[in-house]
Amino acid sequence: MVTNVVLAKFTDQGVRNAKDSPKRADAFKQMAKTFGVTVKDIFWTQGRYDIVTIVEAPDEFSAMSLSLSLSALGNVRTESLRAFSADEMATIVGKML
Question: Using one digit for the tens of pLDDT, what is the confidence trace for 38-75?
């Protein structure tokens, strides 16, 4: 599984319809399932980003397809960060020279 931290900012359209954001989050969770992606958590935040989401995908292709599909709706623009667990990081640094 691939874990991503997805940072999202509302577009003008998204902020105009901010009241619908919790409903859109539920729809996003359903959309994610169609790609085999699990939404672990969604947080609405203050500051540079409006929403932070943690997702687990079977592969990078599924994660990217979900991200593009979400952005195509026009309510948010996203930035995805590949995340590594402590065990994954131990394996990675174990391969360092």
Answer: 999 999 999 999 999 999 999 999 999 999 999 999 99
Q: Is 95 helix (H, G, I), strand (E, B) or coil?
A: coil
Domain ranges of the chain: 2-94
Contact 59, 67 (CB under 8 A): no
Neighbours of 15 (CB within 10 A): 13
| The token pair that represents 64 in the structure block | 């990217």
- Predicted model pTM: 0.92
Q: What is the DSSP letter of 19?
A: G
Average pLDDT score over the chain = 97
For residues 27 and 35, the answer to whether their CB atoms sit within 8 Å is no
The answer to whether 14 and 74 have CB atoms below 8 angstroms apart is: yes
Of the options 3.30.70.360, 3.40.390.30, 3.40.50.720, 3.30.70.920, the CATH number for the domain spanning 2-94: 3.30.70.920
In the block, tokens 């599924």 appear at 62
